[in-house]
Every structure is written in structure tokens, then in C-alpha cells.
Design a protein that fits this description.
The longest helix has 44 residues. This protein folds into two domains: 55 residues; 46 residues. With 102 residues, it is mainly alpha-helical. The chain is 78% helix and 0% strand. It is elongated.
Length: 102
């Protein structure tokens, strides 16, 4: 009898680890509840502690700043596009009126 492997998302893993760390729920209870092996839980916990510093590092801030710059650039492009469209529509209406009166 083979069991299918369950895949947990990052958010699910964090929620399980959070319950252990904040609510002090025993690991055995969590493993039974979610159907995971204790070794998997300890591996997730190790990964959290090894890579958790990245959440506070400058890379996270740099990535956020890059995204903010990209959003600003795209907003400027969109504003310019809207201005150009507005000018074209104004010219179109003037031309249509001029041709309609002739």
C-alpha cells in the first residue's frame, strides 16, 4: 500500500512551524494532524532557522526598492500614454467638427 506524497506550500509550512513555536503545540500532535513525518518537521524548522535571516537582510529591502522603482516607471508610462491618447482624441474631435461643418 503506497501513500501519495503531500506537498505543502511555503505558507502551510510556516503556519505549522508557527503553531509549534508560538502555541507550543507538541510536534507529535502536529505531525499526526497534518500527516507528516517528524523528520520533515525538523527539516523545515532547520531551513527556517538557516534562511530566516534573509527576511531581515538587505536583499529583501533591495528587491522591494526595485519593485517600487518599476511600479513608478510603469505609472509614469501609463500617465504619458493617457496624455497622448487625450491629445489625439481632442484633435480627432476638432477634425471631425471641422469636416462636419464644411
Amino acid at each position: 500500500m503506497s501513500q501519495t506524497r503531500r506537498r505543502f506550500t511555503v505558507e502551510q509550512k510556516m503556519a505549522i512551524l508557527r503553531r509549534r513555536l508560538l502555541e507550543q503545540i507538541p510536534i507529535s500532535d502536529l505531525c499526526d494532524e497534518y500527516g507528516i513525518q517528524p523528520s520533515a518537521f525538523y527539516r523545515w524548522q532547520q531551513q527556517l532557522f538557516e534562511h530566516g535571516a534573509a527576511a531581515f537582510g538587505p536583499q529583501a529591502k533591495g528587491a522591494t526598492a526595485a519593485l517600487e522603482r518599476k511600479v513608478t516607471t510603469l505609472e509614469e508610462k501609463l500617465t504619458r500614454k493617457n496624455e497622448v491618447l487625450s491629445e489625439l482624441m481632442e484633435d480627432y474631435v476638432k477634425l471631425k467638427k471641422a469636416l462636419g461643418d464644411a
